[in-house]
Amino acid sequence: MTLVDPRRDPAAAAPVPNGFGPMLRKEDGRFVRGRGRFVDDIDLPGMLHGAVLRSPYAHARIVSIDTGGALAHPKVRAVITGADLERRGMAWLPTLSHDVAAVLATDKVRYQGQEIAFVVAEDRYSARDALALIDVEYEPLAPVVDARRALDPDAPLVRDEVPGRADNHVFDWEAGDAAATDAAFAAAEHVSTCDLLYPRVHPAPLETCGIVAALDPVTDRLVVHCTTQAPHAHRTLYATLTGIPEHRIRIVAPDIGGGFGNKVALYPGYLCAVYAATITGAPVKWTEDRSENLMSTSFARDYHMHGEIAATKDGRITGLRVRVLADHGAFNGTSQPSKFPAGFFHIFTGSYAIQAAHCRVTGVYTNKAPGGVAYACSFRITEASYLVERMVDVLAFDLGLDPAQVRRKNLLRPEQFPYRCATGWVYDSGDYPRALEQALEMAEYAELRAEQAQRRAEYERTGEGALLGIGLSTFTEAVGAGPKKQMDIGGLGMADAAELSVHPDGTAELRLSCMSQGQGHETTFAQIIAHELGISPYAVNVVQGDTDRTPFGLGTYGSRSTPVSGAAAATAARRVRERAKLVAAAMLEISPADLEWEAGRWQVRGDPAAGASLAEIARAAHGSLELPDDLEGQLSGRCVYNPPNLTFPFGAYVCVVEVDPGTGQVRVRRFVAVDDCGVRINPTVVEGQIHGGLADGIGMALMEVLAFDTDGNHLGASFMDYLLPTALECPSWELGQTVTPSPHHPLGAKGIGESATVGAPAAVVNAVLDAIGVRHADMPLTPAQVWSAMRGRPLRTDLAVR
Amino acid sequence: MEITVTVNGRTRTRDVEPRLLLVHLLRDELRLTGTHWGCDTSNCGACAVWLDGVPVKSCTVLAVMADGHEIRTVEGLEGPHGLDQIQISFVQCHGLQCGFCTPGMLMTARWLLDRVPDPTDEQIREAISGQTCRCTGYENIVRAIRHAAAAERDAAERGAR
Lengths: 802, 161
Description:
Chain B: Pfam families: Fer2 (PF00111), Fer2_2 (PF01799). Chain B: Pathway: Alkaloid degradation; nicotine degradation. The complex is a heterodimer of chains A (802) and B (161). Chain A is an alpha+beta fold and 802 residues long. Chain A folds into 3 domains: 41-141 and 209-287, Alpha-Beta Complex (Aldehyde Oxidoreductase, domain 3), CATH 3.90.1170; 299-422 and 430-481 and 645-790, Aldehyde Oxidoreductase, domain 4 (2-Layer Sandwich), CATH 3.30.365; 495-641, Aldehyde Oxidoreductase, domain 4. In chain A, 28% of the residues lie in helices and 25% in strands. Chain A has 19 helices and 33 strands. In chain A, a hairpin with a 2-residue loop joins β27 and β28. The mean pLDDT of chain A is 97. Chain B folds into 2 domains: 2-76, Beta-grasp domain (Ubiquitin-like (UB roll)); 85-160, Orthogonal Bundle (DNA polymerase, domain 1). Chain B has helices at 22-29, 85-92, 102-115, 121-127, 139-160, and strands at 2-7, 10-15, 48-51, 54-57, 70-72. Chain B starts with a strand and ends with a helix. The mean pLDDT of chain B is 97.
């Protein structure tokens, strides 16, 4: 046992469980020293720098591009245009959603910020300088900015390059039983309807997207360092797009400064850097700036929803119907399971026993950036959860009922699990009423309602004082995609692999296909192996993010690391344990049937002193011990885990806000979050994940929006315009938990990465509207929006007022 | 033009373009990549460093403005006897996830604690309000700063006895 100096390695010096439990993170030592290694930190010999010329117009025909001025710049090595890529068949790339997207525009630009040319220069600043030396002549066209007008007969055509295309329609898709739902509505005692916008927002990880692409002249391999959440999927995509076979491509994701879905897609800048590396023979780095990140990379949401909820007069929900207009931007570039054009939106019945439900989703093209599935959204469950949680509150408002009572009346009961919902999902496990009651108790709900009444009476008497609002959200998540028979990304089944090798000294290496962007995989996955093998997490080295060193898998998004890769890791460890048993039997010259596993060793049943520790077994497995013929030497195991079903985390949130009726300013006073993500591997890490998602919820509900003016100008292209919550907007979170294990996950774990982002926005919005007594107003509830809503004129938040 | 800057106690001389940003001097010229760049507009604070003992956002400071001045970055926090208490507390309180905002947060937190040894939560939140974290919801950053303050007060009391 080596002594650990707490001043040098505080995490290792703290208590470390041989398995699950609170544990400080193994990865933190490098980050607090400023020794993380992010893509932009990489500096290769002879490296060149790329910069992207982008369209100032939302919609314009390109008449000509003159790169002569840029090429004459003394430090410029190359200028790439769409015409160059076209010659190599690389001007358009297939998206993951049955469409194509321009890499560099050839015919016209379709959104402001779209890529037109790529300059390669000897340094960052020169590359930027040269952008100004490229002359592009545009012929501006009328843009499609408002998704609600995209299907008008006279709407400009976004995708006129597609032969025969006459409109901006992308897809129609539906789920649920339309006839049964219509019947439920026809028979309903009461129907409430509401139009809700979940505006376009952006994941905005603090580190923007970037790449360093290099061709190794010796091995003739393409080596890509990139901010990717899915290194293996990217390798397959690069192979498809460039024609370089996969074995000659190595993708390395180093430390990633946050992803939230923003770093799943393959962006034009990446392909340009790869192409530039091939033509210059030098490594090429491209790091986008913040405006580029906000204007051109995967946005999130942009769902225009019309909800209808049918109920009895006492608030029992009998039907839910929703029509969605989905703004997909100029290309259908959502990164989601390919058979799910609206993601998992059809989980919109949420946590409630609703017999009849139907949704119809129509996707449209507009002159905005592509994307749509990002920002911790669990493939559109964020939109679905917001829809149903808002509709339940609208119903309560219309019927004059307490939103908590309406939820109590309609929540699924524990005995109904496994539960098949109206659109066909099978929820694995849950105890929703328990979570709700716990949250209400923590929040002291009755006392809050009394305070609210008192404050409102005070305000009505004096016109002074803040109004109090209480908002609930009882959401259900669906994560861990997914059974590969139903779910694939670009044709790749959504299974993930893990490989575990135990070294001769009993320490281990775990190789994973998923990739942390801050979730703490190096710690959590070491704990999974520690739990299964009875060794210290510090005896496990976790390898991720390098396609040369890890097995194939689809990566980290949709909260799928623990549900999928975690299951793969646990299963691989169990296979190692079984193999160790056979080795131990050979060592001890005893039948394997007489051995039992106990805290990291196989020992003889009834004679615990006789046995062998994992380290002893590992040494023997690598040594000269005679093993049975059917037993390979060494000690390793692997698993490709194809999930039998999704996992269904859930939670009950209570948000308490104070609203200044004079200014519309909202202050979040308290936020109580009771989450159930099944078994918690590292509770500290789980709570950290929840904290981050709750802040996202406040951001989306109160501050964040990507709005556009009528010319298609992007109005949120910097952090001065796209407002993110700071420490001042966030309260101190109050967390509670229940634990309902997943019955089909080897560890009983469900995943937690996105629960809070899914569940929190509705709680905040419900609280603000509850405070001001308004039935509905769209996010973000900025002071201007709250003030207008109080006067009966809520704003349309996605378009600039002219 | 030629500039001389003292970075983490070491004197460094470079010939730079007048327009070079301090963050790029540190990252690209001096290879101190612990200071990150996140937004261009002084909003996110990932690039926060000390200029003559005061936190500044190095994406909005020209390198030439640092000529003849002292810069301290995250790489300058660790001393010969180990990590600074604020670094230890960030680890102990799970005050970081992706680690991208962390260097800037650490520099601001260290500055705060040097002036206000026993800050309230409000003072802590105010101090880091010019910086963005997308992972932690700030809860554990605030807790880490409070934790460091308590540990340093304890250490000071022990030293006084």
